[in-house]
Specification:
Shape of chain A: globular
Number of strands of chain B: 0
Strand content of chain A: 25-35%
Shape of chain B: extended
Number of helices of chain B: 1
Largest sheet of chain B: none
Largest sheet of chain A: 5 strands, parallel
Oligomer: heterodimer
Structural class of chain A: alpha/beta
Strand order of the largest sheet of chain A: 3-2-4-5-6
Number of helices of chain A: 3
Structural class of chain B: mainly alpha
Radius of gyration of chain B: 15 Å
Distance between the termini of chain B: 44 Å
Radius of gyration of chain A: 16 Å
Number of strands of chain A: 8
Order of helices and strands of chain B: H
Chain lengths: ~190, ~60
């Protein structure tokens, strides 16, 4: 699937400023860092969670633990995805029982990824509370489930034919958030956004 | 490296990358087997059938 880049939404400094603001909001809403437990989703949610944990440590002197969630086995579209899914390890240090969890992902689109993440968390235990922080929200009109973020880096209203690509130095050459559109008029699959 | 075969009927024809992929995937399932909830929803609605072509050496009845 070829994509034509349409716009650069954010560069690296803007990403980090947004994360700093999200860290402040999380700490303000939760009255400190004390009982926070950050959980990064899939690939790109994980470095975002690590950076937020660092920024929370800067603010409060306390670095919350960071877990990793691979939601591949909880997706509701496994039989329709073309390529065979690759499962990576889930790592939730300690117990999540009665914890105050902040889920972190790069893009919120249909909400199905977050639904899968919630189901997976519940299979590990019963958190006291789960909140959601995302770098980019693609707009409420795309939601296929009643799921919203508590903390949003940037709201970017998009069309279904568009895609938001978040690139982070941990995985990609250049860091930034880009808006792209499908190059041909071929069918567009947004794989589990 | 991904696993793109539809069937797995033996391991002789597998490439090293495919074997590694299967073992890596098995590791994640080992983690799941150590949790309290040892199931995931991935195969919900599917039927899994085990066929044994030779008598079991353990089962007596």
């Amino acid at each position: 699937m070829d994509f034509i880049e349409k716009a650069r939404i954010m560069d690296s400094p803007r990403i980090n400023r947004a994360l700093a603001r999200l860290a402040s909001e999380v700490v303000e809403e939760n009255h400190g860092a004390g009982d926070l437990y950050l959980v990064g989703i899939r690939r790109r949610g994980v470095p975002l969670a690590e950076r937020m944990a660092d920024k929370i440590a800067d603010l409060e002197g306390d670095r919350p633990p960071v877990g990793i969630l691979d939601i591949t086995l909880y997706r509701d579209d496994l039989s329709t995805v073309g390529a065979k899914p690759i499962v990576n390890r889930t790592d939730l240090p300690g117990d999540i029982e009665n914890r105050n969890i902040v889920l972190i992902d790069d893009v919120l689109y249909t909400g199905r990824t977050i639904r899968a993440a919630l189901d997976q968390l519940i299979d590990f235990g019963r958190p006291r509370r789960v909140q959601l922080a995302v770098l980019i929200d693609r707009g409420k009109e795309h939601r296929e489930l009643p799921i919203q973020a508590d903390y949003i880096g940037k709201l970017v209203p998009t069309k279904k034919s568009e895609i938001i690509k978040v690139m982070l130095q941990e995985f990609d050459e250049e860091e930034g958030v880009r808006l792209a559109t499908a190059a041909s008029n071929g069918r567009f699959f947004c794989i589990f956004c | 490296m991904n696993f793109n075969r539809k069937h797995l009927l033996g391991i002789r024809e597998l490439e090293a990358g495919e074997i590694t992929h299967l073992l890596d995937t098995a590791e994640t399932f080992r983690d799941i087997s150590r949790r309290e909830i040892k199931k995931v929803p991935a195969l919900r609605g599917r039927t899994v059938i085990n066929l044994f072509f030779e008598s079991s050496t353990r089962t007596r009845t």
